[in-house]
Design a protein that fits this description.
alpha+beta, 2 domains, 4-stranded antiparallel beta sheet, 3-stranded mixed beta sheet, 11 strands
């Protein structure tokens, strides 16, 4: 009988010790814009010094469960905001920790923007007259027999040359 009572006392005394060592602390909070008091969606909240982190919902709310009891600091950051590191907060098994984290908008200064034309791209200039000849026009030209030089000679202002020469003389065109 004495052994049973002694064993029962040992078991009862050890239960609070085991429950205090379990990782059952909860941290809840909200990340918000300090100017507008609106929640910051998709902000990153990290338990500082660990790899444990969370992402806020659309309203800026987040929650950590299974946190070791003790003092922890949280770091919150989001695109367009300055990162914020909280002061140490106490996490216990008996009560969840609630925290509000304000983020300040980051002023991003842009430098001077200079737009200039590329030196490698030429402007398309139209000479006095331009004639573009497509494949279908070459094929449809009567007597051309798909010969580009014969097709060109059929246009007004183009002179024919002797058969042994390989150039085209265009009225108004220079020799060079």
């Amino acid at each position: 009988m004495r052994k049973n009572i002694f064993t029962l006392i040992i078991v009862l005394l050890s239960l609070p010790v085991f429950s205090q060592q379990s990782d059952s602390g909860i941290i809840k909070g909200r990340v918000y814009n300090s100017k507008t008091n609106e929640g910051v969606p998709f902000a990153t909240v990290q338990i500082w010094g660990t790899t444990v982190g969370a992402i806020t919902d659309f309203d800026g709310n987040f929650m950590f469960t299974g946190v070791k009891p003790g003092y922890v600091e949280l770091r919150a950051s989001s695109v367009g905001f300055n990162p914020f590191l909280t002061s140490a907060i106490l996490v216990t098994n008996s009560k969840e920790a609630n925290i509000e984290i304000p983020l300040e908008e980051m002023a991003i200064g842009l430098g001077e923007v200079v737009i200039k034309a590329s030196p490698f791209i030429k402007k398309i200039e139209t000479p006095v007259s331009v004639r573009i000849i497509g494949i279908d026009e070459i094929e449809k030209n009567p007597g051309g027999n798909r010969d580009i030089s014969k097709v060109i000679q059929s246009f007004p202002g183009v002179a024919s040359t002797p058969a042994f020469r390989n150039d085209v003389i265009v009225r108004g065109g220079g020799t060079e």
